[in-house]
Every structure is written in C-alpha cells, then in structure tokens.
Amino acid sequence: MKKHNLAMVGFGGMAGWHYDLIEKIDGLEVAGIWDIKEERREYARSRQIHVYESQEDLLADETVDLVLVATPNDVHKSIAIAAMAAGKNVISEKPVTLCSADLQEMIDASKKYGRFLTVHQNRRWDEDFLTVKKLMEEGALGEVFRLESRVHGSRGIPGDWRQEKEHGGGMVLDWGVHLLDQALMLFPGVALETVYATLTNVTNQLVDDGFTADLGFANGIHMIVEVGTSNFISLPRWYVLGTDGTAMINDWGDPIKIVRACGADEGDVVPVRTAAGLTKTMAPRRDDSIFKEERPEEKSDIREFYQNVMAVVDGQEESRIKLEEVARVMRLMEAVFASAQKRQAVKFEG
C-alpha cells in the first residue's frame, strides 16, 4: 500500500485527536507539525513528534503530500492556499473558512494548482445521525413531517479564540456547521426554501453562544436545528415526528426510542383530569394501541474519512465530502446570520 505523509499546521486539541486517529490507519503517517505557540511545539516534542522550524519549513518538505489545517478558523484560507501552491493536498478543519466567497478562493486555488482540497466534516460519521438517517430511509414512522436536532451544554463558549469574532468564533460556525450539514444530508436533492433563525448572546456579546434555526424544505418538512451553551437541562439530541410514530435519541451513545401506533381502535378515549379541566385530546394512548421499541445506534468507523482521502489522492475514489456540499452549508450559515439580523425568515433556494 502506498504510504502517505501528512503534516499538521496547528497542534491544538483537535489536531491531537487527528494524530491519535492516524496512528490507527494503515498507509498514513504524520511527518510532523508546526504551531505558532511554543507550548504546543514542546508538547509535540514530548510525544516524540517532529516539529518543523516554521510553516515554510513544513511546506518545503517534499515527502509530505497531505497538509491538515487545524488552526483558528480565520487563517484556514491563507494556510490552505499556501499549501496547495506548494504542491500539497489539503484537509481543512471545519468550518473551512469564514464565508462562501473565501471558500470560492480556496476552490479556485485547488483547480489552479491541481491539488485535492477537502474538509473534515467528521460528524457525518456520528452514529446518532446515521441512526436517524436509516430510520427515515426505512419509513418506520410513516411520513416524517418534523425533525428536531439539538446539542445543549451549560458551560458557555470555551475560553479561547472561539469567543472572538475576528477568529471566526461563535456557535454557528463551531457547531452549526455540523448540525446544518447533517440536516442537508438527510434530504439529498431536496431544496431548502426558507430559513428563520435567532441567535443568543447570554455569556458573550461579541459572538453568538447559541442559535435556533427553522429550516423549511421543499418537501414540506420543517426541521429545527439548535445549539445552546446555557442549557442546564438538555433537550433530546434528536426528536423525529412521523404520521405513524415518534422517535427520540436522548444523548450521544443512547439507543433510539420509537413509539408507533399499532392500529387499535382509540375511539373510547378516557379523558384525563388536568389542574383546571378535562381533556381527551392530550390523554395518553392505551398500551394496547401503541408499539414501543428501542434500537442501538448504527455503527460507524471515522477512519473511513482518511481512507477515502488517500484513495482520492491515489485516483481510486471520489471524495465523500463534496466541495459543493461544503459551499451549500457555508451559504446556509450566512442565511442563519442574515435571518437573525433581519428578524425574519429569508429565502434560501427554490
């Protein structure tokens, strides 16, 4: 198997995750790293990882054919273009850059220099996402009419560059890039017609520390995508509503819980007493009229990302992360910001 050598620009926590993953992948090795922070370079040396003298030194290494850009978001573009100009193929951490115009510059550079450019949209391999995707493909809930996808935490934004607008901070760019990408991947070939979004600034006034977006697809389905960092009681990771049932995944690693109607007559509903009256509408279903089940999450292997990257470089496969998909997500994040600023729904496609 042909061996590929990868060098990392930036060696923070995410790059360390990449390093540990690459050690488990045949045919791929880390040639070394460069980071502008001395403490990160010292940390790499403590792990017996080669540290280049500079970014220029890294790009001059002729043994390196892949460069991972794992820096703050605002410098992804300049580093990626410099790497492609030096004859390297590039993997950028997400978000690939700060706006769709910058991404187009990167795509143009990829074509100009004949180099492969891709983005580490790793949460396409999230097992909760794959479980919901399979459930929808099976039609187990009947016709799905609404989905809700959320990630909630209560610690605010991490105390680093993610709090700073000039570096591309904020939760739309940090987590939105994942959840919005997953939303679009659930409906291949379906136009997204409208976007209505609100942002929160509970713990940070410079960048958004959370957002909620209502996505209206051309097939009539609405999907709520939400990120919160001041939520001390978290809502479910996934909530899926169909004409014949409902499914929920409470958190990462949890099974998917499914409740479906089983066709029994519900004509003799017994009203329930609430604090100020009776209701049949909201009375719970009888046990004999529903079917409950739990399924484990689908399994995935994130090593497939790098295996695909190597196969693309070797001319054996097409990229699983298409740049036109990345560009669509970038435009969608811009629509989220535009809707929040205008305080109204904005048209997206169609």
What does this structure look like?
This protein is of the alpha/beta class and 350 residues long. The protein is built from nine helices and 16 strands. The chain has helices spanning 13-22, 38-46, 55-59, 76-85, 100-113, 127-138, 171-185, 303-313, 323-342, and strands spanning 4-9, 28-34, 66-69, 89-92, 117-119, 144-152, 192-200, 210-217, 222-228, 238-242, 245-249, 256-261, 272-274, 277-279, 290-295, 346-347. The strands form three sheets. A nine-stranded mixed beta sheet has the order 15-12-11-10-6-9-8-7-16. Strands 2-1-3-4-5 form a five-stranded parallel beta sheet, with helices on both faces. Strand 11 (245-249) and strand 12 (256-261) form a beta hairpin. It is elongated. It starts with a strand and ends with a strand. 36% of the residues are buried.
